[in-house]
Amino acid sequence: MIRTPVLVGLGAMVPPRVVDNEELSQRLDTDDHWIRTRTGITRRHWAGPGTATGDLAVTAAERALRSAGGGPVDMLILATSTPDHPMPATAPGVAARLGLGPIAAFDVSVACAGFVYALATAAGAIAAGIAERVVVVGADIWSTRLNPQDRTTAVIFGDGAGAMVLRAGAPDEPGALAGFDLGGDGTFKDLALVPGGGSRGRSEPDGAGKPDGTGEPDGMGEAGGIGEADEYVTMRGKEIFTHAVHRMGESSAQLLKKIGWSASDIDWVAAHQANVRILHTVAGLLGIDRARVLIHLDRVGNTSAASIPLALTDAAAHGRLAPGQRVLMTAFGGGLSWGSAALTWPPIQVSDVAA
Ligand code: UT7
């Protein structure tokens, strides 16, 4: 029998500072009505100075491990596109702070689709006998990468972390992950991008970076130079919106076909929380009632790789998820990247995301 990943622990957190639409309206040309009606978001949490992605990841993972009742872990995978440093990966430090011992720990960088990719990686490691129990974390701090002048991105993103503990088990157990669908299309990589901070935008000791002013310092690259603004996230929102709807809808449908579930079997959809209009449109495409779609973004915004485990933790903490119910997860983000996963809900206890 194939060793199947089974969900045994779940936890999440958001940093304490709340930024509501009113606060953003005071410094940007936007207002509460626009943000609420166009995105569904009323507030989000932003990490304060001194708090890094790894810090959020540690708290979420601690809560997930508590929910799982403790026990040994032999792998930790962290989905993030906002690591503590370009090098090393953030995951080994998280594992060390959790006292997990000398285990395999690594980051996966797949933007807002990262958590589903990390889950699929964990599932592969369990199926191959590489790992018995895996902590999978999604954590991002985008607030430090938001251009303070850009009202499109500033109103959307929030910071947070969510985590699951998976163990090797059997496909008929509650909590078993039933399957995955993953995809990507790098031809649209510019739709959501942080231009600087990587090897395409080389740092110069004097900060010059663009010797001939063309942005092509050696004629070899796509973009040259680096400055503070290059490290802000840029997003072509309308185009991303269209791709997100199409890809999450298609990926979910592919997955359901692959595992033999129909839309009417789905009790809850835990989709990446980017925009409530995206979530409702995807539900419509799949023929699933909107009331079956978990909504958490109204209180936390788009938390990128953290959004699916955050939404699930919020729903579980409020008693909305019952053991045996069927849950569809689907995510989409920069890359472009997307993915879906499905599971039957296990009997687990969780604490609230902000507890
Ligand atoms: O996490 C994965 C990656 N991200 C996403 O999935 C995000 C997907 N995209 C979206 O959620 C939406 O496209 C946005 C929320 C980013 C933008 O909403 P939209 O309805 O697509 O707005 P738009 O870009 O079509 O702009 C409509 C109008 C424009 O004004 P004009 O040209 O019609 O006068 C914008 O300038 O709304 C204006 N606008 C704003 N107005 C007030 C754009 N942002 C704002 C704002 N406040 N924050």
TrEMBL record:
Gene3D superfamilies: 3.40.47.10. InterPro entries: ACP_syn_III_C, ACP_syn_III_N, FabH, Thiolase-like. Residues 106-186 form the Beta-ketoacyl-[acyl-carrier-protein] synthase III N-terminal domain. Pathway: Lipid metabolism; fatty acid biosynthesis. It is found in: Cytoplasm. SUPFAM superfamilies: Thiolase-like (SSF53901). The active site is at C112, H272, N302. Residues 194-226 are annotated as: Disordered. Keywords: Acyltransferase, Cytoplasm, Fatty acid biosynthesis, Fatty acid metabolism, Lipid biosynthesis, Lipid metabolism, Multifunctional enzyme, Transferase. The last Arg residue of the ACP-binding site is essential for the weak association between ACP/AcpP and FabH. This is Beta-ketoacyl-[acyl-carrier-protein] synthase III. It comes from Streptomyces katsurahamanus. The gene is fabH.
